[in-house]
Amino acid sequence: MRLTFLFMTPLTKLTPPNLITDATTALLVSAGSFSPPTMLHLLSLEQARDHVRFVLGKTVIGGLLSPVNDAYHKPSLISAAHRLQMCRLAVADSEWIDVDEWEAHQPRYVPTFRVLQHLHKTLQATAHPEWQRAQLYLVGGADLVAAMDDPAEWPPEHVEQLLTEGQLLALPRPAASPTQEAAFQRMLQRYPGRIHYVEQAPVVANVSATLLRQQVARGASIRYLTPRAVEDYIRQHRLYSQ
Ligand SMILES: Nc1ncnc2c1ncn2[C@@H]1O[C@H](COP(=O)(O)OP(=O)(O)OP(=O)(O)O)[C@@H](O)[C@H]1O
Ligand SMILES: NC(=O)c1ccc[n+]([C@@H]2O[C@H](COP(=O)(O)O)[C@@H](O)[C@H]2O)c1
Description:
Blueprint: E1 25-32, H1 39-54, E2 59-67, H2 80-91, E3 97-99, H3 112-124, H4 129-132, E4 135-141, H5 142-147, H6 156-165, E5 166-171, H7 178-190, E6 195-197, H8 209-217, H9 228-236
Parallel strand pairs: 1-2, 1-4, 2-3, 4-5, 5-6
The structure holds adenosine-5'-triphosphate and beta-nicotinamide ribose monophosphate.
């Protein structure tokens, strides 16, 4: 039997309730493959936090990376054990971003709205109203939002549930195709006020996990594209090198 209950969402990096003076609080979560995590995954959360603080006027109590379950079966996925460890290394020096292992340790694939549901329940189970009332924001690239327009990939009821549990915070991603652009615009129109677009994000970069895997496979540098500890881990374990 797998002891999935042992993998609790970590709350240790959340802003202590006694330091929260704002009435409106937010928790940010980034769900993805993280195969491997890149600097842009981390920068996206930093830029999302600034947007929520300065534009939406809320106190951000924390940020989480939620690596997808192995059962997602995306061809580029390596085992969750490696992806979790790389994510832990990536956020080790962050005072506010942590890794939520719950999704990766479930016995099957977890649709993203369930990840948010689980976070909501976790916050409700604390004794702190400042955390309990935190609004959940799923942070991702505009490509993630565009993908939600495709019912074959994202069943509409999953998107509806997701936007009942929380809101979306999208960052620009370069090299979007016209089809993706159109899908993104349709999503913005379909869910007014539920999708926030950080159009003026100070840093927009064409960095993806795919790029890092390609760099490693051809023996090229990934320095500064991911934290040094992640780079070292990739080399030590000879990941992505075939
Ligand atoms: N350069 C980037 N700018 C903005 N968002 C990004 C960037 N890279 C990744 N993201 C977002 O991070 C989230 C997690 O994505 P994921 O781990 O699947 O990354 P990816 O780099 O797109 O992966 P892959 O290249 O393997 O498809 C997604 O919402 C994705 O849009
Ligand atoms: N129906 C769903 O909830 C659904 C569908 C597709 C992708 N996702 C999520 O989106 C994230 C990014 O996936 P990709 O790496 O395939 O873009 C992952 O966390 C994945 O679980 C969720």
